[in-house]
Amino acid sequence: MTTTAYPRQERTGPARIVPILGWRRGYDRHVLRHDLIAGLTVAVMLVPQSMAYAALAGMPPVTGLYAAIVPVLVYALLGTSGSLAVGPVAITALMTATALAPLAHGDPGRYAALAGLLALLVGAIQILMGVLRLGALVNFLSHSVLSGFTSAAALVIAASQVKDLLGMRVERAENLPGILASLWQGVATIHPLTVAVAAASIAGLVLLRRYAPKVPAALLVVAAVTAVSAVLALGNRGVPILRDVPSGLPTPDLPALALADLRSLLPAAIAIALVAYMEGIAVAKSLAARSRQHVDPNAELVAVGAANAAAGAFHAFPVAGGFSRSAVNFSAGARTPVASVVTAGVVGLTALLLTPAFYHLPKAVLGAIVVVAVLGLVDYRGAWTAWRLRRVDGLTLALTFAVTLVAGVEPGLAAGVVFSLAVFLRRSARPHTAELGRVPGTATFRNVARYQGLVTDPQVVVLRIDGPLYFANAQYLADRLLTLAETREALRAVVVDASAIGDADADGAHALAQARERLASRGVALHLATVRGPVRDLLTRSGLWPTMREAGQLHPEVAGAVDAVTGEGGATGGDGTADTGSTPRLPQEVY
b/e per residue, 184-215, with b = 16+ CB within 10 A? Predict the structure, then answer.
């Protein structure tokens, strides 16, 4: 890949405010041609997808086109990724429907207003996070949580489309048990002709994806089935069709704000903001690595937040960067966000001129597009890998998956995050410790539980602590030291290898001082070796460092600490450094 093929984005001058201006250098006819092809390719894919995802969100199909025009343009102006394709996506569409259905009470006008308000809230949260440089917050959504959530949400989405695929007249439900119950109650309303249309649509999508992957499968299926529907008048035979799809471009219209609505939508807005950003930034970073371009996570938050704000102001619903469309955008040759400008332009022309062509489009086709798209999100391999590598990661994934299926998308996401944080806190409160032994004939120490033939001394225990020393684990570690003194009668000293202690707080220093005193009361001395600078600074401020230095209990190396205790390393300097006469004493600053 050359610099000419993938231009670099400048981050100076006006480009800091409007990032698309940073692509000017190196932008030529060659790059424009790639962007045009990619923009057209994604637009062909996006038109049927956006309408399908609008239906999934519980919105009129035309609002899917609206979500693919102004929000896409806004992201193109402000985004830092040259390949990310923003627009309606399945996960956020499902989360939108889940949040709005209980609040709209069957009123389409209120539903649309709430969707706009939700998009505005999502945008405001993302912009605020970007301005405050809080992009790292999405790290709380671990891969296991995201994989379990996405897989379960994909199954819920697919199940929610069954009613449209079978032509059934049933009540909408937001979780898998509710969906299955409603389908069972409405089994008598299955419409055979609609089932045939759905089966043909799914078969066409799957076969085209497998044998002609470069062909716009969704568009071809939509065109073909719509034509057949018009010729055979399927709408008059009981097959649900779109009928009148409003034409024209969206106009700005801020939804009415009510404090009660804001409070009701805020939890869903926070969840959608995090999931939408996580989905987009993951694919943006992946594609940027392949094109050797740079993506700014906090700038991406502002960009996708502004896109969501635009969606709220232009009669749409929350948007995000999509995996499949971004991959198509990249493989089709997108070099800069100009490709997204082309995509938005083509979708805009469709909304302006071509919506009458969708009159005879069966709704079952839109359901088929959604099902075929989302079933690929079920991460079977990721689940097996998580379980095989670490059981607790597998449990996190399984819990998120199960709660999402049974209780819904927001409870599932919350359960996964809370459980993963609880696991993290438990591990942090009980950090790994290892007793060390000396490799014969060397000054190297290794974990006695993992290596054979190590030399140990019943009078000295060397303990390595792998983690910070802070309030959550200070007492646990102090008790660990005291247990050693209580269980080993010949013990004279405990040497703590502090090389893996990267941080400490006041509670940690206090617990260490208490442990030193209690060990001393049993005739056991506490020595510290390889203490890092930040920890040394804290111990100095607490007064423990000078006290231990005067006692000769501080050492730059573990071997020196052991030799000082056993008397094998020669005299010990006043700062706790072994002084053999041939090796210069290390200054205090190296600890």
Answer: eeeeeeebeebbebbebbbebbeebeeeeeee
